[in-house]
Amino acid sequence: MSNTRISVIGAGLMGHGIAEIFAAAGHPVALHDSFAQVLESAPGRIAAIFDLLGQDRAGLKNVTYHASFEEAVAQADFVFEAAPEKPELKREIFERLGRAAPAKAVLATNTSAIPIHRVGERVADKSRVIGTHFWNPPHLVPLVEVVQSEATSLDVVQRTMKLFEDVGMSPVHVKRDIPGFIGNRLQHALKREAIALVANGVCDAETVDRVVKEGFGARLAVLGPLEQSDLVGLNLTLDIHRTLIKDLDHSQGPNPFLEAKVAAGELGMSTGQGFRKWTPEEAAALRKRLNEHLVAAARARVARKTAARDNK
Fold this sequence. Notes:
Layout: E1 6-9, H1 15-24, E2 29-32, H2 36-52, E3 63-66, H3 69-73, E4 78-81, H4 87-100, E5 106-109, H5 116-119, E6 129-134, E7 143-147, H6 154-166, E8 170-174, H7 183-199, H8 205-214, H9 225-232, H10 234-244, H11 256-263, H12 280-310
Parallel strand pairs: 1-2, 1-4, 2-3, 4-5, 5-6, 7-8
Antiparallel strand pairs: 6-7
């Protein structure tokens, strides 16, 4: 699939990273953004990713930049929409894609939580609409959730999974079109309980984060929750659930503690106060630590792929 033509709609936080993934793998990529300033800055941001991961800058020539939406998608085999997480905006984009992209093109939305059928409801041929939820930043996090709606054809699912496998990403097939898919449902279930623990005075926010990072989180990269259950035995898991499940938070909406913080303007690092206080130096140090961790893992993956290719 090395000649697969890729179009990316949106050159912002996610879009330029998605474009880089396919360009680095040798695919021609047409990148569009409706904001001229964002599009003009994209070549430099994409080049910085190539340098960050130690990739051959020759791949930069695979990206072309388009102010015209229609021009960007006219020859596409796959279109990846990476617009802001606003349902109506995404629906409008897909309505345009249904008219402007070739009839055979796969139309993929990088939504984090919106059900795919809602995004593609104005597309005549809904069988070619699919969800592809990348994680931020996409060039450093390999997982992609490939989300199948009731209308998505199995051929489109298979083609999309194969494309991601070929470029070294790690696709997983989400077989039901539910809000949040898999990753965000798990992530926000954890956040719901974490917020409730703090709101109910069980502990402070620093303690929650320490328990996750230094406790069960230390093994999550190599041991998933169901693997861990099989490891210790489902009988033990059942015994724990009989004691614990009924006592977990089961709020039907956002926790009032969270709503009160947002109403008070306590938004997190951007305001210096969220679940805990943040100085600019502390926030910068955390971002640096996270970036260094993700970059090291991504460089290792690139090195393994290069070695495997060289040994063929």
